[in-house]
Amino acid sequence: MSQAEQLQDLLEEGSELNIVCHNNPDPDCLASALALGRIAAAVGIDERQILYSGDISHQQNRAFVNLLDIDLKPFEPGSVQDRQPDSLLAFVDHSVPSENNTVPPDTAVDIVIDHHPAEGIDARFVDHREELGAAATILTEYVRALDVELDTDLATALLFAIRSDTLDFLRGATHGEYEAAGHLHEYADQEMLRQLSTPSVSGGTLDAISTAIDNRKVTQAVLISHVGRTGERDALPQAVDYLVRLEGVQTAIVFGLVDDAIHVSARSPDARVNVGTVLHEAFDDVGSGGGHHDVAGGEIPLGIFADYTSDDVQLLDIVEETITARLVSELNLSDEKEK
């Protein structure tokens, strides 16, 4: 029995499906959730919800939700703990309760479909393929195998998700992504794809990128910078995507204060550096960090730092010193820096 058929059999046991996205969901997570919902509808599940925590703040993610009219609801932790036996819980594009989600630890999960490195995955159905560039690739495979109707919106969502997560097939793309994209292309709305690819950029995002440029420090082909405090969480990955292109830089890491946490985003085309491992080892004792060898992120609650001072400038100095020191130590960098 194929994985698609195993998933179908499990869904047929349920009367309700709760699809939980990871925090601050991106197009890959949202498109995968949309596709899983369509598969569930095809087997007769009428009660379906796509749930998320955090914010959809990246302008591209907001455009994705609005243009495709995706129905999202805020996640409430109690809703998955008290559910009925025939109410199924699914994770897409993430895999473990309490890691990059607000699902309570030890919550029983029915379905996990993911491509990110992870350990300790426990669910009734697991399709975990780290070698793939996008979770949407897996969902496209299921839609095709189960003959689920592929309308324009779903095809557009899945195709854009694959393009987005692979940087237009320049990062982590495999034969699976190319095959899925080839199938989706004839069904997708090309004009909507263009709109999704060129969303407007907020002033706050530009300010954060500018700050990261000004604060950059380069040591041995590793660039470390910060955006200060920002309300634009998704400005960090945009800043690091820009800075990793700087001549002579092979690894870029950008961090910043967002609300009551320190967020970190990293990129590295250097095969000698696994930024997922770097962030995990640097921050696992105080927060969370991880991802792929070339793309990773992390989050560290401010904790006692938030109460240490009411002076934001002093707080930023403390955060910069602490986070930079951990990264320098983990990357075995010397103290010599160059602009």
Automatic annotation (TrEMBL):
Organism, as annotated: Halorubrum kocurii JCM 14978
Domain of life of the organism encoding this protein: Archaea
Domain DDH: 19-162
Gene3D superfamilies for the chain: 3.10.310.30, inorganic pyrophosphatase (n-terminal core)
GO molecular function: exonuclease activity; nucleic acid binding
Matching InterPro entries: DDH_dom, DHH_sf, DHHA1_dom, Oligoribo/pAp-PDE_c-di-AMP_PDE
PANTHER family registered for this protein in UniProt: BIFUNCTIONAL OLIGORIBONUCLEASE AND PAP PHOSPHATASE NRNA (PTHR47618)
Keywords: Exonuclease, Hydrolase, Nuclease
Stated name of the protein: RecJ-like exonuclease
Record carries keyword Calcium: no
Coiled coil: none
Pfam families linked: DHH, DHHA1
The DHHA1 domain, residue ranges: 221-302
